[in-house]
Write a structure and sequence with these properties.
The complex is a heterodimer of chains A (456) and B (1003). Chain A has seven helices and 18 strands. With 456 residues, chain A is of the alpha+beta class. In chain A, the strands form two sheets. Chain A has a 16-stranded antiparallel β-sheet. In chain A, strands 8-9 form a two-stranded antiparallel sheet. Chain A is elongated and about 115 Å long. With 1003 residues, chain B is of the alpha+beta class. Chain B has 29 helices and 19 strands. Chain B is globular. The chains are: A alpha+beta (456), B alpha+beta (1003). The interface between A and B is large, with 74 and 93 residues.
């Protein structure tokens, strides 16, 4: 019989109401799950002996894996089922989505973490315009506040005022000094605190022929202190002067040797202005190739009794060999700070190649110099639609004025591995990186964890 | 062969458990002797390398040398591949041995001249050890077939075991009398012997290949070893398995060394060296003894019992349990025992398995890719372990931490092996039929073929499960009255949580539970899915007319004007809940401006296809609505950010309508989906059952109707077929309360992500892909997904059809298609389930497809694009799945009871040609006893095969197993043998004949 005729016959046969189907002899009725039977009428297959042995052997890892994963699953379920993130967004954002508050977190190894909130207001004319207020803290000695105004994208203007107080800033002398060099002269990387107040006006805009000019002006006020520091010995212990010498200089003890840290004792009051030009031939795609060359000059002049006068010149080139979901980048950066008066360049205005965007294996402030060179090789490749992995090597050094006394045997390498996060909507190669995490290692610095990604 | 030798051979066979056939002893002896000499030479050189490097440069040089080895391999392997492309690889093996002999004599000469050769010799030996052994086995796998290798490799590998033990003992004694340089000459002489034996083996192998068919017209693949490795998933899995094995092993060596050092530090300084020396002396002795015992006594028997695929699991399981125990009990005795068992299993069973894995591969893979794997994967595993040790020491890992890392690596290894086994079994199944020569060769080949076929049947451990002589079930009877509504859920609102649950926790559990391939439970005795509240077959059992198929599920069409009652808060498409002029409720969904048809075409077409296949869907009506036909219910609300209820205002409605696609006449293009009647219980889960519903007896992951829905989703390129797009409705039907299960929302079909074109990765990858992500990570991007080479195609198709999405036609590959997450039911789909799903898909004719596409009202070019894509993809699915399993349908017993007549669906639907199909038929008595075996040429879509004698057997049962051997270049698969279909017959005494009682297929 064809299946259709069979089905009709059985439907007719089964139409008798009120009869318990399981009492009908097996040979006269098809298998019925209501009677505890399988639909094909056969006894279910049993697992083979080998499989049972394997299952027994894997019982413990299976339980352990579930013990680890199910809390994650239940958490994800609870968060999504109760719309936790949706509620957070609803509570922290207005109905039109243009005004709201977002949490922020900042951390890198060797420095105190800070967390806070950022308020944004976008009910302004012109797409991309925004007023922003942010505040982060990591305790009473770690405070960061900022107020910003960004104009419409087509104008490229922004104004940002910041107050940044930290007591874990790093200073390890000036020049390409290794840990061994520091120890040999009885010095170590030391900490200091500062209250930095500044306001920056910035303009940048892409113009035809792949050029991106930019201009900026800012005022800076920084007050330094050597007491109540965090994360290491104070600079006063390492680079300080005896109390009588402090008194002789009219400074309260403990004070710092101005020869080692120019500008520390009196603080910094500067007005700066500058501009630059970038030729950007790089494709914006995730594995885009191309080349960019940027130069920048920033003139600084002391005010309110600050004698500083200097100019900072920087040049950077980035070459990207990309395609096929991989890109290899080479970056070279050269910076020099040129004194324009007899006053020494404040220590805080020197070139600092160590940190999140440069020599990532070293904490910010580990190396300082009047000039310096930095090179990076970074390989990025696709590992998932939302992630790229990166392998990088940074190497740099600092030197005296105009790259004098560059010691070619004193290059500081660091290496690392990182991940960049994307949220592709459609073609994954067009997605822009949103966030990243990096683990960097320097032979003398150890491992560092950075919640950041390379900006180039 | 003299009787004494024959007797000796039989004793060796019994001891090892191998099965050496007539004419094979010659070859076995040659390979045995060759490997014996090779390993003897290697172990002599291994002993003399230590004093040379340590005296030359110390332990630091040793570490650098390993790094240099790894770097040199990046040059050596491509060079070897180039040579293999130019010269006959079997000859190349011989000449490479010659090069090694020359190198040894050179080292001897330089050493005698006082040149410091320690570092260079260490580096050279690392490359020699891996390349020479890799080459040896490449030659062995080239000459022998898969079944021969399984039988003979254990006995050949025993030669290596014995050679290794002898070589180490020889060197230990000889080094007291001879200078290390002189021992190099001894090793060179042994290698010269290997060269000679390779020459003789090659000649014997050529003769052997005459008897066993090989592809004479092999064209060499120009790609190098690395390219072959990353371009072939099977080879890549072998490489990864070897890499992880070496990682685990080297890390284990470190753990053991640390424990030994810790123990030694508790002793007096003077006795530490002796303790360490004695410990490792005993350790190596135990390893050697156990290796020899396992190799000689266990390996062949394991191969016979569980096959190569099953044997793959031994070492990973051992690693997980052993290092897990070490983590829990970090004692020296425990760790030593684990390492002894691990190392001896590695050197014996695992080593033999690794060679056997290459048996079903191409010649290119056997030489070039194998060299790459046996050298580079090994070294990479060591290097990664070294890196782990470096990081772990810095982070102050204890033994517990390292052991735990090894457990984690072991679990990853098991995952790799699960996939590797699947591939190995699939490759090994493609047994080419022997080419029937002339005269007696034809007879002998046929007998050998039948005998080979009969072997697996004879060896099958359990008889096939029998069907009863009963009517076939066409109803599941899951519609009994359920007085109280079952438990409801919010599954249709969960996406991220389900991705995490199903892609991580459930997948890990499925793999670690060794679930394997389980048969679906909603299947009747004719391998069909009976009618239920989930599915009721339509088009594939009774072809629907064009008006029926276009009408879709029964529902009253919407009649404007529409009163908007609620904003749509779930899903990506803009829309409203509305009531029409007749008071019927609908969900109205719009396309986004500039993408006319992107979402709604999927709705219109997807609902009709799924309904015609047999699933429950609410239906869809395409409309062009005048904005003036919308009125707003004053109580209408919407949910801002999915949580905050806000009044729906005119302004919001207008702003929504302004962003959606309009026709040229200003009307809004929409699809109206009727509201599903009844109490909505939420989505249905793809695993488990719904609590409180006694009718829900079959776990959803074991429902074929859900498993095989994957085939339809792949056909339509649906992005998100998870619980988020399902609904269970509790309602009254014919006076009974029951739950009916629906699929809905096909807006993400045909390459659409509702509001934008799906990225190419969404078509070919799950949201979470741990294995692929790790493969890309550890290969630095060398591992590529299939879709990564189709970027240009995506750009072209989305540029040609910007309103729609990426919907490839001829380049569609169902094996690489992925939805956005691992659905538990889809992950358990077997080939048998997929075959059934392909039946549903291929039941749609060109006319039916054309009529369904026309309902979407797309512009002509877009409609042609979808229509062409659906037809091409349907045919690809047909070729892929209807040829993979014997497409036996509608079997019936002939009136005289001597034959079964059947329909071959693959031929009937045009996915195979009769001329290319030969049926391989085996008839048994239901308990494994063979009654008949023969081949029969197909002559058309119908065929009748003999069941042998029409009289009853002792068992009163008969199983007729049919495989389709497809020969020739036509079609998708080329030359291969399909999985079997088995027709079950029972003797019906009252009628005096066999009657059909069941049909099943291999999973």
């Amino acid at each position: 019989m064809t299946p259709l005729v069979t089905m009709l016959a059985l439907l007719l046969a089964e139409a008798e109401p009120g009869v318990d189907p399981c009492t009908v002899p097996d040979s006269e009725r098809p298998p019925d799950p209501r009677c505890g039977e399988t639909l094909d009428g056969r006894v279910p297959a049993e697992a083979s002996t080998g499989r049972k042995v394997g299952q027994a052997a894997l019982a413990v890892p299976r339980v352990a894996t579930q013990a680890v994963l199910w809390p994650v699953v239940k958490t994800a379920d609870a968060v999504e089922n109760h719309h936790v993130l949706d509620w957070a967004q609803a509570l922290l954002t207005t109905d039109d989505g243009l005004v709201g508050v977002r949490p922020e977190l900042q951390y890198s190894t060797s420095f105190v973490a800070s967390g806070g909130l950022r308020f944004f207001y976008r009910r302004l004319p012109g797409p991309g315009s925004e007023i922003m207020l942010g505040a982060r803290t990591g305790g009473p000695s770690i405070v960061h506040g900022e107020v910003g105004l960004r104009g419409p994208e087509r104008y490229g203007l922004s104004l940002l005022a910041t107050y940044d107080r930290r007591n874990d800033r790093l200073f390890a002398g000036v020049g390409p000094r290794t840990e061994a060099d520091l120890v040999a002269v009885g010095e170590t990387p030391s900490r200091y605190g500062s209250d930095n107040l500044g306001a920056v006006l910035h303009w940048s805009r892409r113009i035809p022929f792949h050029f991106v000019p930019q201009a900026h002006a800012d005022v800076q006020r920084r007050d330094y202190r050597a007491t109540d520091v965090n994360g290491g010995p104070s600079v006063a212990e390492t680079f300080g002067l005896p109390a009588d010498q402090c008194a002789a200089r009219g400074l309260a003890a403990p004070c710092v040797d101005e020869a080692a840290m120019p500008g520390f004792n009196h603080g910094l009051r500067l007005v700066r202005a500058g501009g630059g030009l970038m030729l950007d031939l790089r494709s914006p795609a995730r594995d885009g190739r191309g080349f960019s060359l940027a130069t920048d000059a920033n003139f600084a002049r002391g005010v309110a009794g600050d004698p500083s006068r200097h100019v900072t010149l920087a040049a950077e080139s980035v070459g990207a060999l990309g395609g096929d979901d991989r890109v290899f980048l080479l970056r070279a950066r050269a910076v020099m700070v040129e004194r324009l008066s007899d006053a020494p360049i404040p220590f805080d205005e020197l070139f600092v190649p160590s940190g999140l965007q440069d020599m990532r294996g070293f904490p910010t402030g580990r190396l300082r110099g009047e000039s310096g060179l930095l090179g990076t090789a970074e390989y990025r490749w696709y590992i998932a639609a939302s992630f790229d992995a990166t392998l990088f090597a940074d190497v740099g050094t600092v030197a005296g004025p105009r790259f004098s006394n560059i010691d070619w045997s004193r290059w500081f390498p660091s290496f690392g591995l990182g991940f960049r996060y994307y949220r592709p909507m459609g073609a994954y190669w067009d997605a822009r990186a949103r966030d990243g995490i990096q683990i960097a290692y320097a032979p003398e610095g150890g491992l560092r964890l950075l919640f950041s990604m390379a900006a180039f | 062969m003299p009787p004494s030798l024959r007797k000796l051979g039989r004793s060796v066979e019994r001891l090892i458990g191998s099965d050496v056939r007539e004419g094979e002893w010659h070859l076995v002896g040659l390979f045995f002797a060759n490997l014996f000499l090779l390993l003897t030479a290697y172990y002599i050189l291994k002993v003399i390398r230590e004093p040379l490097i340590l005296l030359g440069g110390g332990a630091v040089s040793r570490s650098y040398a390993r790094g240099v080895q790894a770097g040199l391999l990046f040059v050596v392997i491509p060079a070897y591949s180039l040579l293999a492309n130019r010269f006959e690889p079997a000859r190349l093996v011989k000449w490479i041995f010659g090069v090694f002999v020359f190198c040894l004599t050179l080292f001897f000469a330089l050493g005698r001249l006082g040149v410091g050769i320690g570092f260079a010799f260490f580096v050279w030996l690392g490359i020699f050890s891996t390349l020479s052994i890799a080459q040896f086995w490449s030659l062995a796998t080239d000459i022998m077939t898969e079944s021969e290798g399984k039988r003979l490799f254990p006995i050949i590998a025993a030669g290596g075991t014995v050679g290794g033990i002898l070589g180490a003992q020889l060197a230990a004694r000889a080094i007291e009398r001879l200078h290390p340089h002189h021992l190099m000459l001894v090793a060179a002489a042994l290698l010269a012997g290997c060269m000679l034996l390779t020459h003789v083996s090659h000649g014997a192998g050529l003769g052997h290949r005459e008897r066993v068919p090989h592809d004479r017209n092999h064209e060499w693949d120009e790609r190098g070893g690395f390219a072959l490795l990353v371009g072939d998933r099977y080879l890549l899995l072998i490489g990864l398995s070897v890499l992880v094995l070496n990682f685990v092993n080297t890390t284990g060596d470190f753990i053991l060394a640390e424990m030994v050092n810790s123990k030694a530090r508790t002793l007096a300084v003077a006795s530490r060296k002796h303790f360490i020396g004695a410990f490792y002396g005993d350790f190596q002795t135990w390893v050697s003894v156990l290796t020899a015992v396992v190799q000689i006594v266990v390996v062949a028997r394991v191969f016979r019992k569980v096959g190569i695929g099953g044997a793959l699991f031994f070492l990973p399981l051992l690693a997980v349990s052993g290092y897990g125990t070490s983590a829990a009990l970090p004692a020296l005795a425990v760790v030593s025992a684990v390492k002894v068992v691990e190392n001896s299993t590695d050197y014996s069973l695992q080593n033999t398995i690794q060679q056997a894995l290459f048996l079903p591969t191409s010649r290119d893979a056997k030489y070039k890719a194998k060299s790459a794997i046996d050298t580079l994967s090994v070294r990479l595993g060591d290097l990664i372990s070294t890196a782990l040790v470096f990081v772990g020491v810095h982070l102050h890992f204890k033994i517990f931490g390292f052991a735990l890392v090894n457990v984690g690596a072991g679990l990853i290894w098991i995952w790799i092996v699960v996939h590797l086994r699947r591939r190995q079994v699939t490759l090994a199944m493609a047994i080419p039929a022997p080419r029937l020569g002339r005269g007696w060769h034809r007879y002998a080949a046929a007998v050998a073929f039948v005998a080979a076929l009969a072997r697996p049947v004879a060896a099958r451990p359990d008889p096939p499960r029998w069907f009863a002589d009963r009517p076939v079930a066409w109803q599941e009877h899951d519609d009994a009255d359920v007085p109280a509504p079952p438990e409801s859920n919010h599954l249709q609102e969960l996406m991220f949580a389900l991705i995490v649950r199903d892609s991580l926790a459930n997948e890990a559990d499925r793999l670690l539970s060794l679930e394997g391939r389980t048969a679906a439970a909603d299947v009747n005795a004719l391998d069909e899915v009976p009618c239920s509240t989930w599915f009721c077959a339509r088009n594939h059992l009774r072809p629907m007319t064009i008006p029926e198929i276009v009408a879709g599920p029964a529902a009253a069409p919407p009649r404007p004007p529409f009163k908007i009652t609620k904003g749509k808060h779930l899903g990506a498409a803009a829309g409203f809940q509305v009531q029409d002029a007749d008071g019927h409720k609908f969900m109205l969904k719009f396309d986004v401006a500039g993408h006319l048809g992107m979402a709604n075409a999927g709705e219109m077409i997807g609902y009709r296809i799924f309904h015609a296949a047999g699933y429950n869907v609410p239906g869809a009506f395409a409309m062009a609505v005048n904005p003036a036909d919308f009125t707003l219910d004053p109580a209408a609300k919407f949910e801002l950010y999915n949580v905050e209820r806000r009044p729906l205002t005119d302004a919001l409605v207008k702003s929504t309508l302004a962003k959606v696609a309009h026709g040229a006449d200003g009307r809004v293009r929409a699809v109206a989906v009727p509201w599903i009647p009844g109490t909505i219980l939420g989505g249905f889960d793809m695993i488990g059952v719904r609590r409180g519903d006694p009718n829900d007896r079959i776990p959803h992951q074991n429902r074929r109707s859900l498993r095989a829905s994957w085939v339809l989703f792949a056909w339509l390129s649906v992005l998100d077929p998870s619980s988020i797009n399902t609904i269970d409705s509790y309602r009254v039907e014919e006076g009974r309360h029951l739950v009916r299960h629906y699929f809905f929302d096909f807006g993400c079909s045909f390459g659409s992500a509702t509001n934008y074109a799906q990225g190419i990765q969404q078509d070919g990858e799950y949201s979470i892909e741990v294995g692929r992500t790790l493969a890309s990570l550890f290969t630095l991007g060398a591992y590529r997904r299939p879709f990564q080479d189709r970027r240009d195609e995506w750009v072209r198709l989305t540029a040609e059809h910007p309103a729609l999405g990426y919907f490839p036609a001829e380049t569609f590959n169902p094996d690489t298609f992925r939805t956005n997450q691992r659905i538990p039911s889809h992950m358990r789909m077997t080939e048998r389930d997929a075959y059934w799903g392909a039946k549903l898909v291929t039941s749609f004719s060109d006319e039916q497809i054309g009529a369904i596409v026309a309902t979407a009202g797309l512009p002509e070019a877009d409609a042609r694009y979808i229509d062409h894509g659906l037809r091409a993809r349907r045919d690809i699915i047909g070729r892929r799945y209807l040829r993979a399993v014997a497409a036996v349908e509608n079997p019936s017993v002939s009136p005289d009871g001597t034959r079964i007549c059947l329909q071959d669906l693959a031929i009937a639907r045009g996915y195979a040609q009769a001329a290319e199909v030969r049926y391989q038929v085996q008839v048994t008595d239901g308990r494994g006893k063979g009654l008949a075996a023969y081949e029969q040429q197909a002559v058309g879509p119908a065929a009748c095969v003999s069941i042998g004698s029409p009289a009853s057997t002792d068992t009163g049962y008969r199983v007729v197993e049919i495989r389709s051997h497809l020969i020739g270049p036509a079609g998708h698969e080329g030359n291969h043998v399909s999985k079997a279909a088995r027709v079950h017959l029972r003797w019906r005494a009252a009628e005096g004949r066999f009657v059909l009682v069941g049909l099943e297929r291999d999973e």
